[in-house]
Specification:
Length: 301
């Protein structure tokens, strides 16, 4: 037994290769292969460099277009690109001239954003898909005399009249040219709602105010509206820190999300899509104290 124990004690396993031993990061063969490929690419690009050198002073985009039209190929066989020409010019120690940027016409305005478009068209027409779901959701809110202090062409009050509530309603807009379109609604004024004297007493308010003045519209409405105050605004309107503090005590009772993003209509007959913002109706009720209720309107409401 002792001899057997000595045999096990003297036994040693063959050394295993250390798979974690450091290896050289680069091997000479790989470096030589890379250098050879680079040299071959330079050799293939020499004819292209000669052609580019003959087009001295031309913009890169013109050089690219001319080379591809003439059937030239990049060093690796692909089409000539902007980077191909830029690298070739760098090897020759040259820089391609940049084409002069066209100056915008004096007074021209960008129309890439909703706000910029509002400056161009001055007014948005609220599409029916934005207010019909609200009128169907709570018809009892829209009983009695209604008002729209930013009425535009009066389409929302006109829809309420078509449902049997004859008013008389009050429609206001700051633009003189809207007065003729509002004549069949009832009392019509053309004034700045926030500075006008003694707005008419009303039972409810329904409006799509200017984006940046919605809070001021709500505060002014509380002075002459005895019932629901319905404001159409983007969902993000409620998220700023200062406005969130105001909304907690402003009587906000309902946040009713629209089923789809509106496509604003403009006087030219076109439509402007809102690809970024979702919208909701913010409904303020008198003497409301507590958290608002959130719901989702639908086309079937």
């Amino acid at each position: 037994m002792l001899d057997l124990a000595n045999q096990f004690r003297s036994f040693s396993a063959p050394a295993m290769p250390n798979s974690f031993s450091p290896k050289p990061k680069f091997r000479p063969g790989i470096i030589e292969s890379q250098m050879r490929r680079t040299a071959d690419a330079h050799d293939r690009s020499r004819p292209l460099l000669e052609v580019i050198s003959n087009m001295h002073g031309a913009p890169i985009r013109d050089i690219v277009r001319a080379l591809n039209s003439a059937g030239h190929r990049a060093a690796r066989g692909g089409p000539v690109t902007h980077n191909t020409v830029a690298r070739a010019l760098a090897r020759m120690g040259e820089e391609a001239p940049q084409p002069p940027r066209e100056r915008a016409r004096k007074g021209a305005k960008a129309v890439k954003t909703i706000r910029a478009r509002s400056e161009q068209y001055e007014v948005f027409r609220t599409p029916a898909c934005a207010y019909l779901p609200l009128l169907n959701y709570r018809p009892e809110w829209f009983v009695g005399r209604g008002c729209d202090p930013s009425a535009g062409d009066g389409r929302m009050l006109r829809e309420i009249i078509s449902r049997g509530n004859m008013g008389p309603h009050w429609a206001n807009d700051i633009r003189d040219e809207e007065a003729a379109k509002l004549a069949d609604i009832g009392q019509v004024t053309v004034a700045d709602y926030l500075t006008m004297d003694d707005p008419p007493r009303s039972d409810f308010l329904l409006t799509n105010p200017p984006f940046t003045l919605a809070q001021e519209f709500v505060e002014r409405a509380k002075t002459h509206v005895s019932g629901p105050i319905c404001i159409l605004q983007s969902i993000g309107w409620q998220t700023t820190q200062r406005r969130a503090k105001w909304l907690r005590t402003a009587g906000l009772a309902h946040v009713l999300n629209l089923p789809k993003r509106p496509q604003w209509e403009v006087d030219s007959g076109g439509k402007i899509k809102s690809n970024v913002w979702d919208y909701a109706w913010f409904v303020f009720l008198p003497n409301h104290d507590g958290r608002p209720q959130m719901d989702w309107l639908s086309d079937g409401d």
